Amino acid sequence: MSEYNAPLQDIRFVMQELAGLDQVVGLPDYRDATPDVVDAILEEAAKFAGGVLAPLNRAGDTDGAKWKDTVVTTTPGFKEAYRQFVDNGWNSVSCDPEFGGQGLPRLLATAVSEMWKAANHAFSLCPMLTQGAIEALTIAGNAEQKAAFLPKLISGEWTGTMNLTEPSAGSDLAAVRSRAEPVGDGTYKVFGQKIFITYGEHDMADNIIHLVLARTPNAPEGVKGISLFVVPKFLLKADGSPGERNDVYCVSIEHKLGIHGSPTAVLAFGDHGGAIGTLVGEENRGLEYMFIMMNAARFNVGLEGLGDAERAYQRAAAYAKERIQGTELGVKGGPKVPIIKHPDVRRMLLSMRSRVEAMRSLAYVVAAAQDNARHNPDENARQEAQAFADLMIPVVKGWSTESAIDIASTGVQVHGGMGFIEETGAAQHLRDARITAIYEGTTAIQANDLIGRKIAREKGVTIKAVIDDMFVDAARLDGDLEAVGIRQMAAIAALDRAVDWLVANFAANPKAAHAGAVPFLFLLGITAGGWQLGRAAVIARAKIAAGDKDPFWPAKLATTRFFAAHSLTQAAGLAEAILSGGEGALEMADESF
Prior knowledge:
eight-stranded mixed sheet, about 600 residues
């Protein structure tokens, strides 16, 4: 069984050449992120991912988290690995130095996070949820909450969760019924049940800090009446250390298709008198605050898709080089050869790899935009970067995760019958990847947000500016890259046409617009991914022309050409589905299904 090796050369290339690492580390507050520091962090992260987390991935799948009498025990080795993770400072890479964070760029944290997710998806979910809690408390918490919780969350000594979903309220958060009753001094007693709570209970940290959506007694109905509360597993003593157990208990964990090493908890709040919590921010603004966590989580789930896809590709490529079967096409009487010699196996592997490289490139560029949105001294640059990040985060989440499912499935196919056998490990990537297109908002929720809030609401202003940039970069694809440029131009034109149709029809024909929302998300993902690969190809061509003999450069040209021929050419069909597919989706009577 192959081992995970972080693709450091491509990671460094994308960070430097496409995401603009030099510009990012030149921003105020990031000047300590020197090239030597960045490189050392990437090297150490790769060692930790490959040497500590990856060896536990299979164990997490076969011997997952266990529940008994409200107590959850994680996979043997997870607790020790998490202690190393915390001791090595990995939880605090991009966090605020005021509370103990390292204050390094989001771009660097994104690269490191990809490694955790590729090496051990289930393990990586715990620090991911903690990052969301840190984000929400940093922006919306009061001084007392920040002082009490942020240092321990940032260090990783404590972990965090987000508690939205209830048995009767899935994605429809307006139906949340958990309640919070004031008891004085800004304290509340929280009652209710929450489901699908990732790492809602475990044995890896001294305390778990739950961020919980609930309604106060006089709250209005619907999403406008939801507040956010911080509810620790253990109440804090006067010195800030964990004390008395709070009234929140895990009553079960889910039995899932994948990510078995990650406990998905059902939590009961207040069954024994009320779980003590404090209000975060202002009353009835909980959903607004929770979306701070949600947006960070959505980007990170997109990275999970990237990580799963990278790992599935590595496993499939290693198997294709080792598996001897058949003779090489066109070589009569030749010897048996590794299956990587067969054209369709090569097609499958390039299908996997080219999409992984496109996903990575887009995600890292969006991470750099988030850094600029926070730290660029120019206000206009901050606003433009934030608008670009807001536009693309649903794509990073939705397109990357849907692609990961297909890539992992292709990985099983490369293995042939052995891919269907659990011992090869290929099936785990498919099972683990499958949840990524569902949680933190399904693909349709991402797509609806994309066409509504990010495009129709502003009449396509941001995406039209991005399309202009795409056309400029595509024009540089000339000479031996002309075929790539032609296909990229066609894809951008198809995207432009779809944007015009959405802006014109979103209000007048909302059902038809939403019927095409997911195809539109795929269209934008493919086109944006091709845009970034096109930029990479121009750089690779220049390197080769300058005499650089590194095989990385012709490989980058090969993946770009493959993506242009096999992925960008889908753009025209997706555009047709957006413009005219609504009729087919909506015309059939319900009883005919």
